[in-house]
Amino acid sequence: MNKRESSKGEESSKREAKGGDVIIEVVTRLMVPFIQLFALYVIIHGAGGPGGGFQGGVIFGSSFILYAIAFGIVKAGNRFSESANTVFFSTGVYIYAGVGLLCVILSYGAAQFLNYGFIPLTHHFEENRALGMDLVEIGIGITVMAVITSIFFNLAWKRENEGGKKAGEGGGEGRRQAERGEGRERREGRERKEGRERREGRERREGRERREEVGG
Prior knowledge:
The chain has one domain (2-170). It contains 6 helices and no strands. It has helices at residues 2-18, 22-45, 53-71, 73-79, 82-106, 125-215.
């Protein structure tokens, strides 16, 4: 079992060192921009139809997950680091909270939280409401994208670390078994040598006794 896990870990590391499948990588490079563009459409379209920040954020996060599956978790982690993910997560929360507080502040406390019509983006209340809703959907989409990506990377790194640990344990067990085998062989060799020396000594002693009997 340990040898199998160790060999699997070595094979995966070799594949990652050589690079992934060329077809998968090329198709992924072509698909990721379109997936992200569609995610933006879903986010913006949420104000007037099906879609929204949650759906668009999940779609946007899936583009990073697809990239990680195609190119490997290490390369994907270098392209989309944990610090960048934290920045996106915080930015989305700040946009959502900022728009809500801005509605209250600009209405001098008369409006409720996230009452978008009081944001003076245009001269029309309904247009202000739609644009404010778009801003909130963008904030939600950014946050959901960061959360989905963070969950995937945390699970992927945990599995990879556990796989490396198991492979290391398997390699250590193999070395211990090899050392025990070598020790057993050395011990058996010493026993054979001692047995041969005892047998030769007994033969020499018996030969001397026979010569003494013949001489006597």
